[in-house]
Amino acid sequence: MQIHSDIPYVSDHAALQTLDLYMPDSATAKHPLVVYIHGGAWRSGDKSESSTLAKGLVGLSRDRLAVAVINYRLSVRGDPATMHPMHLNDTVSAVKFLVAGQYPGCDRVDTDNLYLVGHSAGAQLAGALVLREHVFALGKRIRGVVGVGGIYNLDGLLQAYPSYSDFVDMAFVKDQYEEASPYVLAENKLAEAAHIRFLVANSTTDELIGSDQAAQFAGRLVGSGYEDVTLVVRDMGTHFGQLDDRRFWQIVVDFVL
């Protein structure tokens, strides 16, 4: 496996506007690319914490997948400049960079075959990215989205967990809840996103996010006419523990391949 670290995805980049690329050793094939978006309540987390996950996905796929793990700028309490849509804009910039194919090993990446995998707040970013019209300069290159332990409905999250306002208010003002919630964005099916496959997963032993967020989001997608939606609710470990669990890796590899 070849690992390329700290690749900037925008010019004049900030420290967190970088990504790591995990490439199979195979030099003869083009590989689907999994783009992993970490969680951390939009205020914490780093791509370095996802190394085990990325290596696990490449290995479990028997070198048939490449994995990019992206960072994005994080919210800072009291700094409005670090609120939504900053995180989403960085995520879009990273995906556009990966599609453009100007990085080590890009000749072995199938840039028409991308899958977004988001955890927790990262699932919000992945869902919002594909369900907002402005991102479809990317064309149909994004083939699927996997969310695990995801936040899809900010209003619903705060109703279930009022104390989470501590971090939600760092990242969003209330007037932004609907435009940032994939659950709301999925209400009207986007023609540009009609081809996208969705896998919405939640562990029954996730101690931080209940399965209602996943079930309601999957139901909204189906009700809006998206034709390939899979809901997985089973024991895969704790909120963060599942990321290093082979059970979750297998779900992702099976979905992509």
UniProtKB/TrEMBL annotation:
<dbReference type="InterPro" id="IPR050300">
    <property type="entry name" value="GDXG_lipolytic_enzyme"/>
</dbReference>
<dbReference type="InterPro" id="IPR049492">
    <property type="entry name" value="BD-FAE-like_dom"/>
</dbReference>
<protein>
    <submittedName>
        <fullName>Alpha/beta-hydrolase</fullName>
    </submittedName>
</protein>
<keyword id="KW-0378">Hydrolase</keyword>
<feature type="domain" description="BD-FAE-like">
    <location>
        <begin position="19"/>
        <end position="142"/>
    </location>
</feature>
<dbReference type="Pfam" id="PF20434">
    <property type="entry name" value="BD-FAE"/>
</dbReference>
<dbReference type="GO" id="GO:0016787">
    <property type="term" value="F:hydrolase activity"/>
</dbReference>
<dbReference type="InterPro" id="IPR029058">
    <property type="entry name" value="AB_hydrolase_fold"/>
</dbReference>
